[in-house]
Every structure is written in structure tokens, then in C-alpha cells.
## 1
Amino acid sequence: MTSPKTDTSMHQLHQIHTAMGERNLYDSVSYCNRCGMCAPVCPIYQILPRETTSPRGRNQLLRLWLEQKIKPSLADKTLLALLESCTLCGRCKQMCAGDIPTAEHVLEMRRMLRLSVLPSFLQSFLQLRGSHPFLFSLVARLGIFLRKVHLIQIMRTLRITRLSAFKWLARLDDLLPEQVVPLERKFFPVVKQAARFAVTPPACIYLPSLEAEWILPQLARDTYKLLPQPVLVWRHTASGLFEYVYGDLARSRRLLCRLIERHERTENGKLPLVTDSIDVYLFLTRAGQVLSGQPAWEERARRFAAQIRFVTDYLPATEKVPSRQRVQLECGALFERQGKPFTQARQILSTLFGKNFVQCSYTDTDIPAFGYGFTLHNRAAEIDFKTVAKIARTKTKSVFTLSGLAALEMNRLLKQFYPAAEAKHIVHAKR
Ligand code: SF4
Ligand code: SF4
């Protein structure tokens, strides 16, 4: 099916998983039949209703590019706006009858153009977690200390954070809880003690997300308690997700291969690897796609992906929580809004809260998490407002999320527009 006119040398991913099986980039984008059904659910199209900002427009751009009918360049402002504005939320895929992975196509276009959408300091800092975890830890602690001594507040007062190079700092400051406590102080003493007395082999591995490790120790603690004991906790371990989305694919692959090797060395690769972040889950279950075209790794990646679990697999939901308050599920995630964790999460909340669980249509705008506010300075406020409007309209009091980062994003908005509600990770649903 590949057109003889296409240039495959630009492709970064060898194969993309499509509804028709593994396909190369051109075949994957060619399945888009331009029906336009995806446009109304795209959060960016809702704000900027233009063909170029619709999922269909993004797919057509890629197709024309691969057919060498256009020559994109970083100097083209319209093109940059189109590529930067996608939140990678995957809502278009959910709506599409052909399951076209538009978010993956946008990512490929960014990689082909070497377009970095995160502020450069933030990008370099976050990359340290994978390459130099010790240095990352030092810089993160320094940042926490400077925040504690009100440096960011001083920068805000002096309006330094209004400069485009520092806008992300104000967003980060709003996002973080007042007190940031790294995980080890409150959580690792418990883990160390448990490990000392463990005589049986581990039952599973817990890979805490960046936010659980650095900002939300309660999320790590509650996840740890849910899991079958003894639990092996892998600290300071990057999955490669960040590099896949914001860095480069080669680096992401290196981190992923390192993780796969470590998993294989631990109890012969038979242990389930559990994450509290839906984004990490969706990335790791794509290990086969990420390492496609590398014969030595493809099969190992698929075996590894089969062992990835999201925390909802271990969340019991047998009895009702005595509550009259309405609750909602916030499905914000990268790439996908459908599949096992989403179905499980709905079932769990429905069992726990009965008719107080408000089922929302996915055409309502929700949070395209994973730090969208850092990349979409100009549009984030509009997306934020639509999200909170949905919660206020249904008089919801608790919003459950599938990642700690989505809960942080959501709480930042709620504090600003609808303080009657609060957001929590779904592992806290029974507390
Ligand atoms: S991505 Fe899917 S829904 Fe959107 S235009 Fe293409 S085929 Fe239609
Ligand atoms: S991934 Fe989200 S933002 Fe991007 S085109 Fe699809 S719906 Fe729009």
C-alpha cells in the first residue's frame, strides 16, 4: 500500500500500531478518510475552529509532507502553530471509526522537524531524571528550597514570571502544593522496613511516577499499600515517556531498553510492573511500537508490555462509600481515552458511589494532562475554563483522576474557578 512517492527516510517510528495492525507512518495516516467526525471533540478545534487545527487537518498535513507535496520548515509559523497546539490527548482517536492515531502522527511530525515544544530549561531539567538521576535530585531539591524561601513569589512580584522565558515557572508554582515533600522522607522508611523483613520473593514491582516520587507522597503510599506484598519499589527510574513526548526517540528507546533489561533480570521478567500514572502505563504498553524495527528488541518489548499494570487492577470496589456528594472521573491522558484502565475506573467509581457517580460525555472538554499548560501558554486558560464549567454544571464535589499530574492540574483550576470541588487520584477513592 505504500506509495512509491513517499519519503520513508524521515520516519522516526518504524511502525505505528493501528486498527489494521502494525503499519508504517504513511499507511497509518492514509487510513484517515477525511470524514471530519473527530473535529468537534478536539479541545483545540473547539477553541480555534479552523481546518488546520482539526485532527483531519493535521493528518492531511502529514500525508502531503510524506508525499513530498509540501516541504515543512521551522520557519513556517502556521505550521509551527499547528504542531505545537495539539495536546496529544487522543480524543480524536476515540471518536474516529478507524481509530486513527492522530496524536502519534503529530508526535512524528514534531520529531521529524526536531521541534521542541517545552521551555528549554524545563526540558533539560526533566531529561536529567533519565540521564543523571543524582543531578536531577540535587536540582529538584534546590528548586524546592528556593520555593520555600519565596524566591518564585519574589519573581512574581517583580513580574519576572511574565517574561516568556519564565512563564512556566509561575505555572509550576501554581501547580505544586504549598509544601512539597520528596517521597523518600515519608515513604521510603516504610518500604525499607518492609524489605528488611521480607523473606518471600517480591509479588510485583512498583514504578512510582515522577509526581508520586517528588510531590505526592500520599499517592505513593496508598498505591504501595494496595499492591500484593512484598513489593519491589524502583526509585528514580525514568520510563522514557518524557523523552518520547518531549525529547528524542533515541533517548527514549535507550531508557526503555534499560527498563526492559532490568525487568528481565528480576525474577526472569515474570513480575507485574505497576504504575500509578495512566500516561506511563499507556507509554509502556506501547513498548513494542516504540522499539519496532529493532529485531533484537521487538519480542522482548512485547513480553515486557504484557506485564504492565495500572493501579486500578488492584483497587477493590466491593462496597459502597457512604457519600451523598457527586463524583466524576477525569479521563485526561496522553494518546488514549479508552481501554481497560478507563473501563475499570468507571466501574470502580460506579460501584463505590452508585448514582452519585456522574457519567460525563467525552465531548465535554477535560484535562489534556501531562503538562499541557507548559506548552500551550496561549490556549491553556480557555481549555481550563471549559473543564471547570463541566464540573460546576453537574455540582460535582470530587473529581477522580488517573494520574497525580492530572489531579494537580485539576486542583489548580478548581482553586481558581470552583473551590467547592477537589481532585484526587483514583487510588484515594476509598479514603
Ligand atoms: S481522523 Fe478519523 S474521524 Fe478524523 S477525519 Fe480522519 S477518519 Fe475521520
Ligand atoms: S490529539 Fe487531541 S488535540 Fe490533538 S488533534 Fe487529537 S483531539 Fe485534537
## 2
Amino acid sequence: MAFDAVHILEVKSTFAGREMLLHPVLLVDPDGATLVDTGMPGQFELLRAAIERVVGSLERVRRILLTHQDIDHIGNAARVKEASGATVSAHAADIPYIQGERPLLKANPERLRAMLASAPEEVRRQMEAVFSAPPAVHVDTALEDGQVLPIAGGLTVVATPGHTPGHISLYLPRERLLISADALTVQEGVVRGPNPTNTPDTRAAAASVRKLAGLAVDAVVAYHGGLCTQDSGAQLRALAQELA
Ligand SMILES: [Zn+2]
């Protein structure tokens, strides 16, 4: 892809009977790599292989940035941290969940029961196994809105609550690239809002989309849907108006 320091990974597997393609991002600097989000529990080897294809070794990962507490983002943070010695950072509002001090917001038993009511037996077992032992990890540093991290020429933290209270997106002004995580999705090259079924606070999420639309953006990479370079700034502004 066109941005030297930015590598959009693909981690594919079947979960709950559906094919799931996730896009963690690897940002490569001379002093090591930064991994943005870590896939589902059980995907460690897939993630490791994807990282090794870019930087040769998992030990090159020096920092893990978690965009939020959802299980498909934190799934392998503990294992990558253990294998590489990388530090873990996340927004303060999601840290207690990521550290396992509070149950993951979207893993409460009622919600799960409702979600799994009509699921086949095997899917139900797979889901219950994953959510019964969420992969907690110690977070070393808290990220704040507007903070600029010395990564890939300057990486700006943009607090984008709604999908979770501590959800963040990451912005690279030099590349005019927005790593939206789940504040946006991309579907067949089109920028869309967050998935409504997994976004408890839709008002906050819409405000976050409007906030993102104020950035100068040429490309968006969404965790679910991947890269969009097709008029993404204009698409984002149109979406923000739609959600207003
Ligand atoms: Zn997600």
C-alpha cells in the first residue's frame, strides 16, 4: 500500500458460523512497530503470521494500541505483550474493562443470551467459551483525546465514544489517513457509520462521526471493511450530514 509506515493486516477466520475478516494495523518506525488492535481470541497464530510478513518477527512490536474494549480488538493483546514485551495503551474509559476489573460491556450475560437464543449449538458453545474467559491485559498507559504520539511521524488520538465509552480513532495527518477502528465501517469501498447492533450509544457515535468528518482525510481504514481511498473525505462529510 501507498503509505510506507502503514501496513493494514488481514486476519481472517470463521467465528459464530460466519467468515470474519479483521484489519489490525501495523505502524512501522525505525525503533520498532506499533500494533493497533489484536484480533479475536484464538487468532494469535494468524496475527503473528501477518505481523511476521511485515516486520519479520513479533518481537519488533514495541507498542500495542487498543482502540476499545471489544473482544475482537483485545483478543490477543496479552499474548502479543507477553511474547514481545510491548507496552499496551488505551483510553482511560475502557481500561477497567480491558484489565478485567469490570465485565466487557457487550459481554453481559443478558445480552449474550439474547444474541445466542437462536444460534446453533456449536456457535453457542464457541461464543460462550470466548466470553466466559475474556482475555484481560494490563494497560500501561492511558490515551487522551488530542494526544500526539511519536509514531509514524505523529499519530493523533481522537476520542470517538459511542461504540464504547472509551473508543478512540487514530489519525495520521502526514498521510491524511484515518484509522477509524469501529467508529466507522467500510462496506465494498463505501464509508458507513458504526454497526448499530453493536453500538450502544448511537447519539454519541453520530457525534463522533461528525468529529471525524472535520479532519482532512484522503483514506480511511476501518477494522471491519478495511481501506477506502475513494473520495473518503467527501464520503465522511456526507455520512456526518446524514447522521446529523
Ligand atoms: Zn470490532
